[in-house]
Amino acid sequence: MAHDRIRRQVPALADGELEPLRRFLVTRHLARCPDCAADLEALQSMQTMIRTRLPLHRAPPGLAARIGAALPLEAPPPAPTRPWIPAERFAGTALAGALAGVALTLLLVGGQHGGDPLTADVISDHIRSMQADHLTDVATSDQHTVKPWLSARLDVSPAVKELAAQGFPLVGGRLDYVDGHPAAAIVYRHDKHVINLFAWSDPGHADAGFSATARQGFNVVTWRRDGIAYFAVSDVESEQLAAFAHLVAGG
């Protein structure tokens, strides 16, 4: 019964409509159920075909103007009436308004610098992997086991390196989902810290150098190489995560 309930939610996962906890439960099931994973792959293939192969029909020029002209005109709203404020209360009201304006400005500025949704997604996946006791699907420090295991289940063959001598021992790998599509998660440790290295096929973008950011107490280093997007996420120091990223990329 649980399998049937989750299978009915696969279309919502493909459309990006599941909230984070439900998405985690469904993606964890997909990592262990080839039938549901095949359903998701078929839906994503169909979405790709619709976006890339079907013709795009645009509305003829002037259609919006004709529709607007056919609609009845709306009466303008009545002008708001301002309540009378005694002079002795005006200063206090003005101060309250100014403080409210400052608070709104700070809220808007904070929202503009909140980070991109993709970074938030990989951080959420990093947190869930440790909270849900699902850090690895294949637990081994052998890169020759982890890399083929991931490559056989994904359309990407990410870099998997043994970095124990450099202080970043390989722990294993798992299947994950980032931004609605399958991704590899290669797991390393540094002292007592976990490093999740997410990788997925990204052929539509050119190679890009390293970019670092911090959010929610986690450091993130991203780069693109050979059609693969990489996101390294951990709570290790930013310099240590940057060194790890350079080792993985071979730089």
What would you say this structure looks like, in words?
By secondary structure, the protein is an alpha+beta fold. The chain has 2 domains: 2-50, no CATH class; 117-249, 2-Layer Sandwich (Phosphorylase Kinase, domain 1), CATH 3.30.200.100. The chain has 9 helices and 7 strands, in the order αααααααβαββββββα. The longest helix has 26 residues, at 87-112. The chain is globular. Mean pLDDT is 78; it is low at 93-114.
What is the CATH T-level topology of the largest domain? Answer: Phosphorylase Kinase, domain 1
The major pleated sheet works out as: 7 strands, antiparallel
| Assigned CATH class of the largest domain | Alpha Beta
How many strand elements? 7
Low-confidence segments, given as residue ranges, are: 93-114
Q: Span from first to last CA? A: 49 Å
Strands ordered across the widest β-sheet: 1-2-3-4-7-6-5
What characteristic shape results from the CA principal axes? Answer: globular
Q: Summarize the helix and strand pattern as letters.
A: HHHHHHHEHEEEEEEH
Assembly state (oligomeric): single chain
Average pLDDT over all residues: 78
The domain count comes to 2
**Helical residue percent band:** 40-55%
Backbone structural class: alpha+beta
Q: How many distinct helices?
A: 9
Radius of gyration, taken over Cα atoms and rounded to an integer in Å: 25 Å
Name given to the CATH architecture of the largest domain: 2-Layer Sandwich
CATH homologous superfamily assignment of the largest domain:
MucB/RseB, C-terminal domain
